[in-house]
Amino acid sequence: SSLSSEDNLVARAEAYLSQSVLRHPGEATKALKSCEELLPHAEELGIVARCVDAIAARSSATSRSWFGDLAVLGLHMYKRVMAAMAARKDVRTEALEGCLVSYAKATLPGLSRSMRWRRASAPVSSEVEQRDLLEVVVASLPANKGSGSVVTAKFLFAVLRTAHILRASDAARTAIERKAATQLEQATVEDVLIPSYSGVAEMLYDVDYVEWVVRHFLAEEEVGEDEASWSAAITEEEAAARTTTSRPSAVAMVQVGKLVDNYLAEVASDANLEPTKFCELALAMPDHARIYDDGVYRAVDIYLKAHPRLTAEERNRVCGVVDCRKLTMEACTHAAQNERLLLRAVLQVLFFEQLQLRRAITGTLLASTASPRAAGPSEAWRTTTVQESQTLRVDMDGMRSRVQGLERECSSMRRAIKKIDGGGAASQGSGSPDAAAPAGWRSRYRCKFSTQVCDSQARDAVVSRASRMGMSP
User: Fold this and answer.
1) Prediction pTM value
2) What digits encode the pLDDT tens for the residues 413-432?
3) Which of 51, 156, 262, 306 is the most exposed place for a label (fewest CB within 10 A)?
4) How far apart are CA 137 and CA 173, in angstroms?
5) Per-residue DSSP letters for 268-324?
């Protein structure tokens, strides 16, 4: 009788486990959590293995609403579930990524600036356990770039920030830096603002981490250039295998260039940001990453205003990150009036501004002289045409005179540069041609406007000055 009772109890337990627990991944997760307190007996009875297999099998057919339930599991059980899911071919990558992101957000307190992601049922871990958990999360990240819809750039930079806080191993930090670099073009300035926790540099943000991620991003382009030289010799299968590490597109490069310029403008007001770090990050981007240099010029302008005690050499190096040839007319106008810039930089801006104007006028003249003269039977039409041609000729003569006047001004600027480089040290009082431009020189060359911080954005080539140049005193 007792034997039949035991058989009846085992049968009921088996029926409940099979019909009510293992069919639902959420219930199986709760049962697996209970097994953590019954080890090793639950392992010997095979309940742990059955729960793990049930979760992995159901993960491909159910929605993501149960992913957060995995947060109640300890690290050991979570690793077993993830390994079982990865071993199945019918489990999609999005499901694996979803489980990973949900578990990381719920169990790592420092992953989010706000604590709204953390579940109340998630176990509270020590700093050592959190570091181990973080390194497991980093090791579980997919090798390929992915769609970015689950493992987003925001999540990756949050993991990088947490790795910085928890002092993760160099290998883990390098791995997350490389992973974040694959989605750098999708990041925002807020994502990449990583506070400095070292306490040594006393800077507000850790610029080094951002520079390392940027250099990993640029390294992919160098790899793409090397592979392009011999890609014709590889097979289609090898080419398909290399798509996960393909060279960044031109659009992605420009987006990263804008991100870097906006980031520099954000951190430029930090009084403890050294000129060397500012210039290294600004010069890290290749020339083709910036269509226009208005963004980096804006960052330079903010940096010079926040660091008025720079030496002439430091000021010259900071100004040197801007390519005056790639400034729009609005930015050139602001730079020509900017008292914070070096005299040499102002002269360069004026010179290239004059070149742009000359080219525009020359193009207009060529287009006007190349227009065909149509003849018609009407004498009145001929008279009108002749009058319009005479008016156009007068206008062209006036434009030619203006160009000649600008050329004379340019020659005068060159002579001024030679005088300053040669013997102008005594009049400047600093012993260097790189001193800031005096107000008297500006009035001589008709620069009569007060200087304001440039707020130009390099989004479009032709935008109204009001929307392009937001200036503050």
Assistant:
1) 0.69
2) 888 888 877 655 444 444 44
3) 306
4) 12
5) TT-TT--HHHHHHHHHHS-GGG-S-SHHHHHHHHHHHHH-TT--HHHHHHHHTTS-G
